[in-house]
Amino acid sequence: MAQAPRIAAIQDVSGFGRCSMTVILPVLAAMGGQCCPLLTAWLSAHTAFPPSRHATFLDLTGQMEQTALHWAELGVTFDAIYSGFLGSEAQIGLIEEFYHRFRRNDTLVLVDPVMGDHGKPYRTYTPAMCARMGELAAQADVITPNLTEAALLLGEDYADVPRDEVGLRDWLTRLSLDGRRSVVLTGVSLREGTIGAGCFERGTGEICFPQARREPAQFPGTGDLFAGVLLGSLLRGEPLGQAAQRAADFVQKCTARTLQLGTPVLEGVEFEPLLGELMR
């Protein structure tokens, strides 16, 4: 019997609102992985909620290096390293140091280059920080940008994002850095009523477009849910296209269920009762 794959998850945690660590940890656990949180920040609720004078934010940059040093002292090893939203350039540098300390030849590194959405970078992402995120993503085995982030990584205008398969194939190939990394481009829709991803598999050069039914709502945290299922599937040995299809289908099913329940959009998708479907 094989030991559970161990994943270093470098993310923030929000006390309320399903996103980042509160999504990733249960998903990876359900899929048989041991998720080890390396926290970047603590928030009382995720940032899509309206601003409040009572909202709390604790920057944990100062704890990240100490945590890594302690793990190294304990002899911890990782089968995967997964990073998402980051709060500063300093955190990007700390993740690069983490790679030097913990990355082995067989360690799968996934970078979700969270920088923006709907054609615009997030307000905390300066051009300099976007450039540093590009440098971090260049070291990954797999990246999972959305269309906005893909444009930022390629230095393209969002208005020029391709909408047909020919153009998407070109962007996927460019994002792969000449085949050096796999790419899962999220938010891709090739036909009316569907949404999913475009995938470039670095081992084979194969490109595919897994799609699922589009639901009439956009919930925060679905990108984290998608990437968590994708990583869990890859650690089981599934091919990239199959893993992306599993992730797209699971997000669609969770979204449809959440809409049926009438759960407020800002709370995120109710994935918890469906976690059993991710188990072997």
UniProtKB/TrEMBL annotation:
Listed GO MF terms: pyridoxal kinase activity
UniProt keyword Transferase, yes or no: yes
Domain Pyridoxamine kinase/Phosphomethylpyrimidine kinase: 75-263
Record protein name field: pyridoxal kinase
UniProt EC number: 2.7.1.35
Pfam families the UniProt entry points to: Phos_pyr_kin
Coiled coil ranges: none
Alphabetical list of SUPFAM superfamilies matching this protein: Ribokinase-like
Keywords tagged on the record: ATP-binding, Kinase, Nucleotide-binding, Transferase
Broad class of enzyme this protein falls into: transferase
InterPro entries given in the database record: PM/HMP-P_kinase-1 (IPR013749), PyrdxlKinase (IPR004625), Ribokinase-like (IPR029056)
